[in-house]
Amino acid sequence: MSYRSIVMVKQVPDTANISGEVMRPDGTVNRAKLPAIFNPEDKVALELALRVKEKYGGKVTAITMGPPKASEVLRESLYMGADEVYLISDRKFAGADTLATSYVLSEAIKKIGEYDLIFAGRQAIDGDTAQVGPQTAEKLGIPQVTYVEEIQNISKNKIRVRRRIDGGYEILECQLPILMTVIKEAAEPRPFRATKVMAYKNAKSLLELEKMAETNSLFYIDNLKEEYISNGLYIPTLTMEELQLDPARCGIIGSPTKVLKVESVVLAGGEHEIIEPTKKGISQLIDKLREDRIFG
Amino acid sequence: MKKNNEVWVFIEQHDGKAADVSFELLSKGRKLAQSLNGKLKAVIIGHKIKELAKETFRYGAVEALVIDHPDLEYYQTLAYSKIINDLVTQYQPRIVLFGATFVGRDLAPRIASYTKSGLTADCTDLQISDVTYLRKEYKNLLLQIRPAFGGNIIATIISPDSLVQMATVREGVMERIPLETPVNGKIVEIPFEPDDALKLVKVIERHREEKKVNLKAAPIIVAGGYGMGSKEGFQLLYELADVIGGEVAGSRAAVDAGFISPDRQVGQTGVTVRPKLYIACGISGAIQHRAGMQESQKIIAINIDPEAPIFDICHYGIVGDVKEVIPTFIEIYKHKLR
Questions:
Q1: Coil, helix or strand for B129?
Q2: How much of chain A, in percent, has pLDDT values that exceed 90?
Q3: Domains of chain B and any CATH numbers
Q4: How confident is the model at residue B211, as a pLDDT?
Q5: Chain A partners of B101 at a C-beta cutoff of 8 Å?
Q6: Rounded Cα–Cα distance for residues A193 and A6 (Å)
Q7: What per-residue string of b and e applies to B67-78 under the rule 16 or more CB within 10 Å gives b?
Q8: Which has the higher per-residue pLDDT, B287 or A42?
Q9: Separation CA B84–CA B82 (nearest Å)
Q10: Residue B210: predicted pLDDT
Q11: A162, part of any domain
């Protein structure tokens, strides 16, 4: 028995490595300057899906919703071994919160077709909400298992997984189809395969081809697209129209949560006592803490 | 649609005992309900949970919605979310709060999706206020405040057109404040019909231990950041904690790097602590971290970088190498207090 997996991946700003040049003088982050990376736990999710395919057979499809440049994580999914990828992209998706995002993703999944397993990372590092997985499962009307740390086995239409809970773990047996969100401890993602990198480094989405056509008058978009499809280098792109989505449920309009305001963090003035890193300094500090009755 | 001003708190229970965060949320929910001039209600799902229901009255719940059934003893996504989906749809509370725990983070998004409600994760503050948004006036909205985007900004999120506003909050963020006299509350039992459609996921085995580390109760916390360099580097912190009688904690960067286990993480996505003394070693002091420790009575910061933001909120700052400062500290402390 083989299993069809869909993996939801996301391109995220690398919030873990905010360097000096990314900071504006007023202390805010210049988002455009941050390097964009494959969300780490989504890569783990892809790894698990690939292992399921290797063990039981089947197919792995990676999908992402994002701007045209998010195609990069789809190429990287191909480098790791995904069989097919879809970019879900439309200007009208911009500003989506988790509810609007899960609406678009769930509709895209329905359009892509039959599936047994849906994988995603537990959460994306740019928001840490962990909401899109469960919300997508709810919209698809299927169960979910969050915090998956191990897939133990799959037989017929049942999967047995181990998930983390507060202070321990649970082993669950679930009817397929199911959506799982996985934690980073679940697996070490494989490196890109050189042969796959060579094969897919020129894979392009429709939006990227359109950009090529715009900047070079020798290219016609229809010919380009045909050429890329026949070479197996075309990344299919699903737009709002293609998915026949309700515009009122997409992007910022379809998002119930709104950002009322953002404030740069104002530090509290910085009134503190400087302690010298010497024996004398530290000795005086310990005396002060004893006076304050914190020590002793 | 009828509008009411009810504030609901989902009470997370394990073996009939409520999670700390649930009482913390009731304490905050009480204030929110006062501002809204509405009722605070507790939603409790489980088995043999009457006693627990009464406990919520100590935190100001005027009504406990109790769904008690042997099948519901342990948390399961489908059954629990079905119950709350139905209740929220029927009663349309103005606000629903969940702990940002393994359970809450599994449950809340499912309910927000079903009821198409706005949901904000990991809030560090909640307030009620009138708001003007896109030139429209809104009365008594829930302001959901959380650090965002690398922690360099504080975002205030609203769900202006959402009938129900939902938020999750980490353990320890809100203070737990019991009432001197409990409210004379009412228990409302709500029936549950088991359904095979809710049993697509079966628990084969469950292993759970009560938390071994209780950072919130520790009077002294020695915390390390990425600047500790390695797991071995953290040994110094355990030595210091051992000598001065404290617990060891870490920043998110230290947890992500594998220097320390996640149950010892302090900050927005970890635990919030208010110890007598917090010693921050090799921690730069991103807002997410500060959100979890800035109410400590005394803060000592030790960092090699004099520009580290942690120095802006500490009481005593030591610019120096932790690997030299800490051993000196231990040596002198032992000498003085042996």
A1: strand
A2: 78
A3: 7-198 (3.40.50.620), 215-337 (3.40.50.1220)
A4: 74
A5: 166
A6: 20
A7: bbbeebbbbbbb
A8: A42
A9: 6
A10: 78
A11: yes
Residue A35 in domain: yes
Q: Residue B303 and residue A92: Cα distance in Å, rounded?
A: 46
The verdict on a CB contact (< 8 Å) between A256 and B116 is yes
Rounded CA gap, B281 and B221, in Å?
11
**Could you please report the per-residue DSSP string of chain A?**
--EEEEEE--EEE-GGG--GGGB-TTS-B-GGGSPEEE-HHHHHHHHHHHHHHHHH-EEEEEEEES-GGGHHHHHHHHHHT-SEEEEE--GGGTT--HHHHHHHHHHHHHHH---SEEEEES--TTT----HHHHHHHHHT--EEEEEEEEEEEETTEEEEEEEETTEEEEEEEESSEEEEE-GGG-PPPPPPHHHHHHHTT-EEHHHHHHHHHH-TT--HHHHHHHHHHTT-EE-EE-TTTTT--GGGSTTTT-S-EEEEEEEPPP-----EEE-SSHHHHHHHHHHHHHTTS--
Residues forming a β-bridge with B95: B7, B165
Q: How far is A60 from chain B (nearest CA, A)?
A: 23
Length of chain A, please? 296
Give dist(CA A152, CA B74) in Å, integer: 22
Task: Find, among B140, B101, B284, B268, the residue nearest to A20 by Cα.
Answer: B284
Q: What are phi and psi of B63, to 5 degrees?
A: -150, 140
Sorted by sequence, the CB contacts under 8 Å of residue A11 that are 6+ apart come out as: A36, A37, A38, A39, A64, A66, A69, A70, A72, A73
Flag whether A256 is in a domain.
Answer: no
In the beta sheet, which residues pair with residue A64? A87
Distance CA B124, CA B144 (A): 8
B206: tokens are: 């469950």
**Which is it for strands A237-238 and A58-65: parallel, antiparallel or unpaired?**
unpaired
Residue A208 placed within a domain: yes
**Among B60, B3, B10, which residue's Cα sits nearest to residue B166?**
B10
Query: What is the bridge-based pairing of β-strands A204-205 and A234-235?
Result: parallel
Peptide bond before residue B160 is cis, with ω within 30 degrees of 0? no
Asked if residue B1 has pLDDT above 60, the reply is: no
* Size of chain B, expressed as the number of residues it contains: 338
B160 touching chain A per CB within 8 A: yes
Please tell me the total count of domains within chain A. Answer: 1
User: Average pLDDT in the B240-246 region?
Assistant: 93
For residue A88, the number of C-alpha atoms closer than 13 Å in the C-beta half-sphere is 30
Contact between chains at A129 and B131 (C-beta distance less than 8 A): no
User: Closest approach of chain A CAs to the CA of B87, in angstroms?
Assistant: 17
Report ipTM (2 d.p.). Answer: 0.90
Q: What is the gyration radius of the CA atoms in chain A, in angstroms?
A: 24
Structural domain span for residue A109: 3-249
* Global model pTM greater than 0.90: no
Selected residues 112-141 of chain B with any CB under 8 Å from a CB in chain A: 112-114, 116-122, 131, 133
| Amino acid identity at B221 | I
Q: What is the number of alpha carbons within 13 Å of residue A90 lying toward its C-beta?
A: 22
Q: Write the pLDDT tens digit of every residue in A179-223.
A: 999 999 999 999 999 999 999 999 999 989 998 898 888 888 899
Name residues whose C-beta falls within 8 Å of residue B105's C-beta, 6 or more positions apart in sequence: A130, A131, A146, B121, B168
- What type of residue sits at position A164? R
pLDDT at A135 over 60: yes
How far does A93 lie from chain B, in Å, by closest CA? 17
